[in-house]
Design a protein that fits this description.
Elements (H helix, E strand, L loop, with lengths): L3 H11 L4 H25 L8 E2 L6 H9 L4 H13 L2 H18 L12 H28 L8 E4 L8 E4 L3 H31 L1
Antiparallel strand pairs: 1-3, 2-3
Function: One gap junction consists of a cluster of closely packed pairs of transmembrane channels, the connexons, through which materials of low MW diffuse from one cell to a neighboring cell.
GO molecular function: gap junction channel activity
InterPro entries: Connexin, Connexin_CCC, Connexin_CS, Connexin_N, Connexin_N_sf
Amino acid sequence: MSWGFLRHLLSGVNKYSTGIGRIWVAVVFIFRLLVYVVAAENIWKYEHDEFECNIQQPGCENVCFDHFFPVSHIRLWALQLIVVSTPSLLVVFHVAYRENREKRHNQKLYKSPREIDGGLLCTYLISLILKTGFEIVFLVLFYKLYNGFKVPHLVKCDVRPCPNTVDCYISKPTEKMIFLYFLVATSCLCVVLNLSELSYLIFK
């Protein structure tokens, strides 16, 4: 998939954001999107091929991998990036609506299309609430799917068709855990930034 559209979207929203909103865009673009594309994607690239169990029973290794990794970390992270960036489209659409309305009436109806006020303020607040909600949902999802924010060196599997409890080994667990902690930290930072911007706009 191409990440160009997401970068273009975030750059467009940056024009209508507050100072805190611009920091959020920078965090998403530099510390999440670039880290995903440059480093994280390669770490999980061959996770299934490098997952090994100490048994040759046909199907056992595949079933164990699916049991411990129902969704790939990296695919879930990609989905999270897309979903938390999507509410920003609301702001872009609202500004486009404003500009189109002014063209139709052939007169200036708003002080500035980039000023956050009136209906645009409501749209902006809704987008912040949605982004914060999605971030929290994905953090809970990560925690529930993988039994905490950790990547174990060894997992014990007794799922059929494995004849007994077998030991399975995850490749590069320490490296993966570092990136998982980084993922969680940046998500929490984005939640804090969204809540700070929400508070700033409400009290202002």
